[in-house]
Amino acid sequence: MLNFLIFMLASTLRMGTPIALTALGGLTSERSGVVNIGLEGIMLASAFGAVLGSYLTGNPWIGVLTAMFVGVLISAIHSVISITWGGNQSVSSMALVLLATGFSGVGLKAVFGQQGSSP
Predict the structure, then answer these.
(1) Residue 78: closest CA among 90, 67, 62, 68
(2) How far apart are CA 41 and CA 106, in angstroms?
């Protein structure tokens, strides 16, 4: 029973950390006055960038840097649309979620030949 509890605690920390970090990013965004309901799109695009960067270079740290670059790029697109051009922040966020979902699905199919997961 104790092993099960330790396993569950470790699994919760491992699986919950990306969501907690994303929630902190959303909190920072909300505190600055920008509504960003597209955080899962940023996570999805960054995950695809990490997989692609690691796969193409063979280095997981390049994958982490690629994920950071993609996340910043998606956030920059959202900020230009909503702040500079004065677009609706919710519409911009949802458009980026749809863009990230489609781009990652098509990218997985193009690079790995299968959609939904990578080897």
Answers:
(1) 90
(2) 15
Q: Which residues of 24-58 are buried (b: 16+ CB within 10 A; e: fewer)?
A: ebbeebeeeebebbbbebbbbbbbbbbbbbbeeee
Q: What pLDDT score was predicted for residue 30?
A: 87
Task: Tell me if 99 is assigned to some domain.
Answer: yes
CA distance 71 to 29: 14
* Domain ranges, residue 95: 35-112
With respect to residue 105, please indicate whether it lies within any of the assigned structural domains: yes
pLDDT mean values, one per 10 residues, the chain (119 residues): 90 92 89 87 94 94 96 92 90 93 92 81
Token output for 111: 């690079």
Q: Considering its fold, how many domains does the chain have in total?
A: 1
